[in-house]
Model the fold of this input.
Amino acid sequence: MRKIPRLNLHSDINKKYFGKDFHWGISTSALQTEGAFDQDGKGLSTWDVFVEKRGKILNNHSHKTAADFYNLYKTDIEIIASLNIPNFRFSISWSRIFPNGIGKVNQKGVDFYNRIIDLCIEKNIEPWITLYHWDLPNELEKKGGWANREIVNWFEEYVAFCCQKFKDRIKYWMVLNEPMVFTGSGYYLGVHAPGKKGLKHFLPAVHHAVLCQANGQKIIKSIQATASVGSTFSCSYISAFSNSKKNLAAVKRSDALVNRLFIEPALGLGYPIADLPFLKQIENYMKPGDEELMKADFDFIGIQNYTREVVKHKFYVPYIKAKPIPANKRKVFHTSMNWEVYPEGIYEMIKQFDKYDGIKKIIITENGAAFPDSIENEKVNDSQRVHFISNYLEQVLKAKKEGLKIDGYFVWSLTDNFEWAEGYHPRFGLVHIDFETQKRTIKESGVWYKTFLSNQ
Ligand code: BGC
Done:
């Protein structure tokens, strides 16, 4: 097994090397933490419906209580303050604001986000908002959800409303969270809500997400010219299982799908059809003038990186003709998600994104790891997570020293939470949650991050 080199607090990874203006933060999302799925007038989201289908979520877990952030937000924001974390990225639940997706507003939902924002500001924490982190109002899914082009209008109404309401206190907005994952897992593989499968759902969903990503940016800027607007992209460095011609070609196709599909149309480069020919079918969903509507002028790009993929050519895998080899099969060091720990990958991805013209700033809006944490004597000794974060940070620093446009780093995540189809099993938090009692215990990694952030 590949070992992560042990680092301690006196290793040469030090906040000061990143510069004074580097953004340090912590990330969460609404569905994974809030619970209270039907409290105070919230409408149903696609996930509220999806988790009811047996066999979809590991152990049939449900996010309906999660970390109860809806009721315990004060405790959690106080923890953020106590850890000296200056930036907090969270998402808004669309169906808490618009129970039916559009139309009637749920004032209690708006009040909730006002309370969060106000408390952050009171505690000197900068709130960063993600507008869409995968929880679509179910009423909109009934009309086709992301596969219906009408979503561009629905999303515009929601984004404009949030921006009007919160613009007096919010400087940083992210339009979408990882569109590749919510379209791929939700509309192609069917393993995430709404559980749809096949290209006929996936391709329109991709195109409409690209349109919403760009339109969201434009709407926010038109309402709040001073805002800093970004969107977030999942990315994984892709290596070939061997250097055979076929495997190298499989890497190229996988990279086009995993890392390029959403950023390139935003930058005016169109879809990466040349390297992934089946994407040509997306043109069936395009209308004249769409190329222009796909472009977005982001102030920053959020990249979210956890692992790398090692792929092999596989003829029988439809469209992509490539297959990732799982980390346990390769016998490499991996997390509870069976994701290889590969710190060099974050550097490679920063480098890859930095090469594009038109990207002004890159922020790591998520990076972190799930390990099997347990409480002993009121403590969680998660030194593997400390090593993981410090090793990845060394690679971020390498990028920074080379002059790449890297401008911030957010850990995923504040608390243990509902990890989508994996339920509560993978624990990503710097803070342990006992999901029976909702007791919070700051892990060793939380204390480490605090110490790291306290360096001048
Ligand atoms: C998502 C998070 C998720 C994390 C770990 C990202 O894909 O934005 O919601 O919990 O990765 O899987």
